[in-house]
Design goal:
- The complex is a heterodimer.
- Chain A has one domain: Orthogonal Bundle (MetI-like fold).
- By secondary structure, chain A is an all-alpha fold.
- The longest helix of chain A has 33 residues.
- Chain B folds into two domains: 236 residues, P-loop containing nucleotide triphosphate hydrolases (Rossmann fold); 63 residues, CBS domain Like (Alpha-Beta Complex), CATH 3.90.1280.
- In chain B, β9 and β10 form a beta hairpin.
- In chain B, α12 packs across α13.
- The chains are: A mainly alpha, B alpha/beta.
- At the A-B interface, α7 and α8 of A face α2, α4 and α7 of B.
């Protein structure tokens, strides 16, 4: 086994152990706090918060992926070419809007809870996925495109059989970027009562409890690193299969 | 339905306009069954557009094309294209699919069953001298340029089309592999009887492969004739220029075989085979300073070919 893999498995093991039995790690966090402060967050279970955090992120990225990839497919067809500039600016607006502002605007409509966070992450996730899907779908080598048409593939067969598989590594890179951004951004959702790991961080900030802040932050960071790593590995494998150069970033 | 007596391709008054500019101008030509027609021209002559109008990758502005007597507009373009083999420069193999999957593309589109596709792929790989056990599962980027090109042609022939369209099929190959690829194509064409319409900018390639050559310039066909006629009687100064004055006698010689000029007798030195071109024989005479070469096939002496006879053959036909 390669050392990189050993370290990753070790980190994953630690993360799982901590989420399932945070009490056992009290000794590690206690030195950060004053003696009378609790070292481990116990108001809600870390397992439940982690799952909910991941659920919101994956749900929002999934929705963003469907919309962004769908949009990219539409504007790379001949019939949809005219909408390319419009769709680009829409995705850009989603990115320029600060997530906090989205939260503030969405609360009056959706109320407190997971809803506003979901909307903010969805909007924030659109751009990287859309841009990468666009890059991937327009990068089909002209000879391959020509051969596919010349052999009598229909538009749908070319999309599903040739263009999407070839674009997949680049599209996945966009999804990966979106997931990592969303994992971090989701924490601020707890300011409007979304059930995410941000709750632990905010509790720490309110009660001046450094151990809480660190716990929340560490879980999010480790999740982000592991997911980023895993998706990168999948992309590399797909890229190698396609014989394509590795997508940047 | 196709008519057995109709020519393979009949092009009638075909025109194509792009943004008000006419790139193909009133082209009419027929291509018989089993012919290899090479369309030669400089870039921008409209030769590729003409080819692409046959399988409707480009829709004609005027005129019509019939294939085996059937108007190409009688069916949707993608169904038409599945019946016609298509090979392009750089071959356009699908980089994410194996050699076997690439070759099986059109049969799969046509809904052949799995066993039939597998058998056809295996047969084609053997014809193209690619060991199925070794190559079927490889990805295109794991092949050499020459192997990729062969897979590209095999893919075009997979569904047993009567007609094969080729757009600069050997353009990306180096000269040695290119000559071999041309030879292989001729051999395969002979055994399948496939009609080929081939676009090239290389007059040597057109002469080597074509039973007839169509010379195009500025969207028009200037001359459509067998290679001997093109070389002997170029219709316009442009055709003449394309042939290159200095090369004409040698181009003419390249059309004949040593067998045609065989004479009884004996000669000294390195022998030559009866299927070698007259051009090769003449070059060998000049290079080795001999007046005649012995002709030997499978170790058996057939006679000689004389330099004088070769030189006479290189003169303008009367």
């Amino acid at each position: 086994m390669r050392p990189g893999l050993v370290i990753r498995l070790l980190v994953l093991g630690l993360l799982v152990a901590f989420i399932f039995a945070p009490g056992a790690f009290g000794w590690a966090f206690a030195p950060l706090n004053r003696p009378n402060q609790p070292p481990i967050y116990t108001q809600s279970s870390l397992l439940r918060l982690t799952l909910s955090h991941l659920g919101i992120v994956l749900g929002a990225v999934l929705a963003a992926s469907i919309v962004a990839i769908g949009l990219a497919i539409v504007v790379t067809r001949r019939a949809g070419e005219d909408f390319l500039p419009l769709s680009r600016s829409l995705a850009n607006i989603g990115q320029t809007f600060p997530p906090v502002a989205v939260l503030a605007l969405a609360v009056p409509i959706l109320g407190f809870g997971n809803g506003p966070t979901f909307v903010a992450l969805f909007l924030y996730g659109l751009l990287p996925i859309f841009e990468n899907a666009l890059t991937g779908l327009t990068a089909t080598p002209p000879a391959v495109r020509e051969a596919a048409r010349g052999m009598g593939m229909t538009g749908w067969q070319r999309l599903v059989g040739v263009e999407l598989p070839l674009a997949l590594p680049v599209i996945l890179a966009g999804v990966r970027l979106s997931i990592v951004i969303s994992l971090a951004t989701a924490t601020i959702g707890s300011t409007v009562a979304a059930s995410t790991l941000g709750e632990v961080i905010i509790a720490g900030l309110l009660s001046n409890n450094i151990a809480f802040i660190l716990q929340g932050g560490l879980i999010v960071a480790v999740l982000a690193v592991l997911i980023y790593d895993g998706l990168s590995a999948i992309e590399r494998r797909l890229g190698r299969r396609g014989g394509a150069p590795l997508p940047a970033a | 339905m196709s008519q057995p007596t109709a020519p393979m391709i009949a092009i009638e008054g075909l025109c194509k306009d792009y943004e008000g500019r006419r790139v193909v101008e009133d082209v009419s030509l027929t291509i018989g069954r089993g012919e290899i027609v090479a369309v030669v021209g400089t870039s921008g002559s409209g030769k590729t557009t003409l080819l692409r109008m046959v399988n409707r990758l480009v829709e004609p502005s005027a005129g019509r094309v019939t294939i085996e007597g059937e108007d190409t507009r009688a069916q949707p373009p993608h169904l038409l294209r599945r019946r016609i083999g298509y090979v392009i420069q750089g071959n356009g193999l699908f980089p994410h699919r194996t050699v076997a999957q690439n070759i099986g593309t059109v049969p799969r589109l046509l809904g052949w069953d799995r066993a039939r596709i597998a058998a056809r792929v295996k047969a084609l790989l053997e014809i193209f001298q690619l060991d199925p056990a070794e190559f079927a599962g490889r990805l295109p980027h794991e092949l050499s340029g020459g192997q990729q090109q062969r897979v590209g042609v095999a893919r075009a022939l997979a569904a047993e089309p009567h007609l094969l369209l080729m757009d600069e099929p050997f353009g990306a190959l180096d000269p040695i592999i290119r000559a071999k690829a041309q030879e292989d194509l001729l051999a395969i064409q002979k055994s399948f009887g496939t009609t080929i319409m081939l676009v090239t900018h290389d007059m040597d390639e057109a002469i080597a492969l074509g039973t007839r050559i169509a010379v195009m310039d500025q969207g028009r066909v200037l001359q459509y004739a067998p290679p001997e006629d093109i070389i002997a009687r170029p219709a316009t100064p442009f055709v003449d220029a394309l042939l290159g004055r200095g090369d004409r006698p040698f181009r003419l010689l390249s059309l004949g075989h040593v067998r045609d000029l065989l004479e009884p007798g004996t000669a000294q030195g390195e022998p030559i085979g009866p299927e070698a071109s007259l051009r090769e024989a003449f070059a060998e005479c000049l290079w080795s300073g001999r007046d005649a070469l012995p002709v030997i096939e499978n170790g058996q002496a057939l006679g000689i070919v004389r330099r004088e006879a070769l030189a006479r053959q290189a003169g303008r036909p009367q």
